[in-house]
Amino acid sequence: MKSKIGVIGILLLMSCSSTKLVSTWKNPDIVLFDAHKVLVVGLAQDENIRMEFESRLADKLEEKQIEAMRSIDVFDVEFTSAQRSEEEIALVEQQLLDKDFDAILFTKVVATENKRTLKEKVHNIDRMFMRFSTDYLEHQDIYYDPESYDSFNIYHVETSLYCICDGKEMELIWRGDLDVTETVKVDKTIDTYIKLITDKMGEQEIIFY
Question: For labelling, which of 27, 94, 105, 168 has a CA lying 20 to 30 Å from the CA of 1?
């Protein structure tokens, strides 16, 4: 699955109720930060998933009367199809500066953690087993049946805001770290993730205040 959907695709397969803001960091030299033109970047191999995520985040910026562009409209296919050098990235940064961008909002998955949880036997969830033998027989498959457990991933996702400021070399302004547990609700997950990061940025007087 990972090879098909890429990094942001992982994010899109999460349940809205399982998306949790873990921590944030704000540059101590910044009291408040305004932006007028922002590039939205989401790392993904699947172009459709990348487009969906970047589009929704760009729409959120537009609601604040901030001009937003998706990386999918800025980085051509050739650029994202191969590894790029530091010099090539520096050239892109200068091009963004020349085009009056003043910030980049960059989202990526930084780590994956696998978990296992015991499946619930729904039909017995409220039953009280009065005899050991009945209880044991009902649940003995835990010993030998791997299907007794669900395996799922927790993804550690990071969204960073960089200032495109002349002479400051793309200084980090703000970062949010989130844990997202794998399930299968796409639309609500995107909305919840974006709401969590933009609400927190607003609280800390970064763009969305």
Answer: 105
